[in-house]
Design goal:
By secondary structure, chain A is mainly alpha-helical. Chain A has 1 helix and 1 strand, in the order H-E. In chain A, about 25% of the residues are buried. The interface between A and B is large, with 48 and 70 residues.
Amino acid sequence: MIRNPIYSVYGLLLLLTAGYAEYSGWSLTRVNEVKNVPRSVRDNPGAYRSVYSGYSHYSGGK
Amino acid sequence: MTSGPAGLVLKVKPLICPNCGGTIVLRSFGQTVNAICGSCQTVLDATTPSLAVLQNFPKRARVVPKIPLGSRGQWHGAPYEVIGFQVREITSGGELYHWGEYLLYNPYRGYRYLTEYEGHWNDVKTIRATPEMISASVVRYNNADHKIFQQSVARTVFVLGEFPWQLRVGDPVTVRDYIRPPVMISSEATGGEINWSLGEYVSGAAVWQAFQLKDQPPQVKGIFANQPSPYDGKIGSIWKTFAWLLALLFLTMAGMAVASRNEMVFDQKYAFDSARSGEASFVTPVFDLKGHASAVEVEVETDLHNDWAGFNFALINDDTGTAYDFGKEVSYYNGSDSDGSWSEGSSKASLTVPSVPAGRYYLRVEPEMDSKSGATMFNSEAMHYEIKVKRDAPSLVFFVVAFFLLFIPPIYVTIKSFKFEGQRWAESDFAPVSSSYSSGDDD
């Protein structure tokens, strides 16, 4: 590792980043964050509309 | 008599060229066999008092040496003077190649040579021991094997200065070069005599500095036979480092997988009938997400068969009102046709919500299906599904990304090294058929 200090640092930074990402629960998935959703959703779930509602669906196999 | 650097005393004897009357200066007087007139390039016999003409030319193009004759410099810890220069040529693959050879002289250490081809320099000295012929393509010298690189017939096409041997323009000599970068062993065979020399690649900058030459050394073009690879010894070393880093990566990955909470915080089964009217969305009971901010995995497992379902989720913090919206479609189809049985999709799916802080959460779930769905229409069966929520489930995806990113530098160095060697051997008449040649890697 001493003979390749730049690669070693690069590799260790990668490991640290991967470890931190794993610890913090990073994900490649994109989710939409919405603030201040009213508490009334619990009583009336239909009053809240997800941004994903009504997106196109695959409708058949081969 | 003139005094050179570091106490070097040089005897300089001016003579007159019998061909043109020009002045000839001999710098290694007493050892010079042939001298060349700087004005008319006539080759003279310096061993005769009258300087007998050995070879003359009616009209010749003059080549200007890159290191002027008479230049003095410190080379290998001793003062040397450039006393001779010759241009030699070979024909290879129908093309003419020229290079220059400079003869250096020190009265106490003798002769050395500097050769130059397209900005590539070699420091050459003759060797008395004959290298051992291991095979037709390998010679051994100083316990090191050198591979044959080139065999050709070289001819001197231009000379200047003085030389301690008989030299004629146009005389052929068979040259064989064997390499082990940065070293080149060369044999020159002529008239039943074989002379061996050992050359070592040196930078033009080192030559320029040694002889205190003005301007810049000629620009380097291409890759020379014994030019040391900048990747020499690096391939093994970088792959060793890769192995260490890979081991560290697996250790870290295993440690993180063991240390992760991977706690099932919610697991509930539901059914959905698309034929039924009314609001499809509902909310789950509240569950606790503990610990530091980490990923939440939501998995949905269905009994779908040749059908699809869409799930719109919102993971909502019951205290702060922050919601994480996401959707997932599950579809599974299978059957058979003339090509045989087939299947497509999966009856279950999962999605990871990144970096969710601790708190009390619930899920708002909104399942969707096509109301004309075959399974529900004809079988009047509802879709059954199970929702599982896991806290801090190990995903390891970033370790996989890191794994591939770790590969890039060693692969880059390996490719560059092979490319360098490929360019080197492309100039050889004895290029390895495959890439089995040594990269010069000593690790």
